[in-house]
Amino acid sequence: MPAQKNRNRFHPRQEATPAPTFTEVHYLGGGALARHLLDPHRSHTAVVVSYRPGEMLRIDAQAVAAKVGPETKVFEIANGIETRHLERGLPEHLHIFGIGARVYPHGPDWTARVPRPHLIHHESELTALFRDLDDEVLAALSVDTTPPPITAPLPIITDATVEGFAGTDRAMVTILKTGKTAFIRGEDLLPEIPLDWLISKGQTLSGSFDPTTGILDIKALLLPRASPVTVYKHGNVALARVKSVSPTHAMVHLWPNSDFRIGVERISSNDLDSAEGNS
């Protein structure tokens, strides 16, 4: 009986192509990462992985990203000055440091649902760490964060306490009546003026709180803009910052949104002097 031909001889069996693995890791400074996590419009769970530069023991952030999948953003940050900036920008006890990782859920009241930080001291702890992170991310994703289709609530007048600053233009506050987190924006007050020049940590403020945006508006607390002519009398001493100088006059900055022109005749009685030489 003649041997049968091997019909698959020139057509070897093809193996299935494995699905691509998601391993994207994001990098931000501590202050920027705090602002990202506190953004009321953040719509994804985040995992922050911290490491100590120069140490061999390290959590593989790309492996974490592959484990939790593309619906979760993984950030890596160096322990030290950046983790201190992160700590200053977040509510108390929500930071991460050392060789560790932490899951940050999203949605309403997410700050009350942040799991504890995971800190490791030996390579043998990595397996349990990956399992715990996977479970916590899954629990965070299972929370329904879709707001109900109702009419947006109107802003309310309420008191709040300043908890800290997420950069120069963002302050985090706690609404006293509900304990919820809200934010004060620098652009709503005096743009380009750091918020910690205007308010301080621990201070209690009253403002209009919009539950939809999570913003506390305190611009009603700003004093009306005054004129230097009405504030100061002849002979008073005032502290000012010189903004610009020309031969005929100088422009000085007395307070936010208040620039004042001083002619050279008020700087020197010598007709040969210029404002540039006397400022």
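(ticket continues) Second input and output from the same batch:
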Amino acid sequence: MRTTAEETRRNKELIINTGIQIFLKKGYDAANMRDIAEAAGISRGPLYYHFESKSVLYLACVKAYSERSLIEYRRIFSQDKHILELLREDLYYCTRNIAPNSEHPIFTTSKEDSLKEDSLKEANQIFKTYRKRVYEMKVDSIARAIQKGELKKEADPYHMVNMMFIFYEGLYNLIEKTDFITSKMQVSQTIESLITLFKQEYCI
């Protein structure tokens, strides 16, 4: 029986969605095409029909993941809420991937592999562009909050966003490399501490 165009599209979407989950769970190096095929409930034939290699599939997964995350960031910062509420929601959203025992860890590739294959180089570039767009979105939101009078005029949007990125990277390293933070409650407490700092320093 011939596969319809709609079935082909659904199969490709299923593979990408499954690939995202496997790459998130295992990381690029540990994941393999067999794992993804089994998790998707398909044979490796359809998998290789759509994606000729693991790196090509990874690239498709990175594109899809980045696009979906950007949609969520746009939703967060388009809400009619006080800037601190938006920043709080943003911090909980972006740290969902690094909380201890998270079901949504972040994408990882080895530096050695990323230098070898064009698909991985492109995936890394997509991540850089994605992070830049998220950074600019946050800066713009804070700048608008200053104009609305929610924050002091002397508040620096770039400084505040830099603090958020440093917070994220530092939290990631603490969780990955130490046992200083071992629960989601500790992550939540740390987020609330940063929001309190912003309130004390920048709110009118």
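Agent notes: Residues 102 and 123 are 23 Å apart (CA to CA). The chain has a mean pLDDT of 88. Closing as not reproducible unless the customer responds.
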